[in-house]
Amino acid sequence: AQSVTQPDIHITVSEGASLELRCNYSYGATPYLFWYVQSPGQGLQLLLKYFSGDTLVQGIKGFEAEFKRSQSSFNLRKPSVHWSDAAEYFCAVGARGYSTLTFGKGTMLLVSP
Amino acid sequence: DAGITQSPRYKITETGRQVTLMCHQTWSHSYMFWYRQDLGHGLRLIYYSAAADITDKGEVPDGYVVSRSKTENFPLTLESATRSQTSVYFCATGQGALSYEQYFGPGTRLTVT
Q1: Number of A:B CB contacts under 8 A?
Q2: A63 close to A45: Cβ distance less than 8 angstroms
Q3: N or C: fewer beta carbons within 10 Å in chain B?
């Protein structure tokens, strides 16, 4: 079975600074990887996904993530954070042949002025 | 295009009562999912459905019942609500097959007193 670890429960970043949210997964084969964002009181919105191919994937809202097989990681990055990026971010892993996703426990991003 | 809707958005009920949370989609996605979100636990899968009349248990199915007589609807019933079922419930859909990404509804906040 696959699993996901998001080591940081909370992260505070100054507006305009760069951001990196960590995600580590456990799965024997090539995983399908996702990042979702949840604004307060809202459902989850897909930011980006990795299935295969180029290990650097671009998503919406200026986010990108890099799949590193050797480190079992799929970290989310943004070069310059905006106050509207404050939200909770979830990493998720899926696998070929399985219809369900396993989610991490989330990282709450706070943006300071 | 409403996409995916959940009703009610907020519900307060008493211990022991039966309550049904509704999920409706307009996309004709084959897969539908129910999650609960609790602080410190992230998202946990309760039940999912691959098609009408096909359902399967997720990580935390005890105390819940689902049915799917029509592709577009996937109600979740708490047969005898307990305080531990106080949570935010999210419905999601997925196209299945080659598409593993999921699309989330706005959620239902359920309080059991």
Answers
A1: 47
A2: no
A3: N
CA end-to-end distance (rounded Å), chain A: 41
Token representation of residue A23: 């995600």
To test the contact with chain B by mutation, choose from A45, A103, A107 the residue with the greatest count of B C-beta atoms within 10 A, namely A103
* Tens of pLDDT, residues B44-96: 999 999 999 999 999 999 999 999 999 999 999 999 999 999 999 999 999 86
CA A2, CA B24: separation in Å to the nearest integer? 29
Chain B CB contacts of A100 below 8 Å = 33, 45, 48, 58
- Both tokens assigned to A91: 């990493």
Contact A111, A56 (CB under 8 A): no
Cα radius of gyration (chain B) = 13
Q: What is the per-residue pLDDT across A16-30, written as a single tens digit (0 to 9) for each? A: 999 999 999 998 788
Whole-angstrom distance, CA of residue A13 vs CA of residue A2: 30
Phi and psi torsions of A63, nearest 5°: -85, 150
Tokens of B7: 């009703």
Cα separation, A63 vs A46, in Å, equals: 11
- Cα separation, B59 vs B33, in Å, equals 12
**Which residue, among B27, B15, B113, B40, has the nearest Cα to B73 in the 3D structure?**
B27
Interface residue of B100, B104, B108 to substitute, partner A, most A CBs within 10 Å? B100
Rounded distance, CA A26 to CA A8, Å? 17
Which residue matches tokens 């309080």?
B111
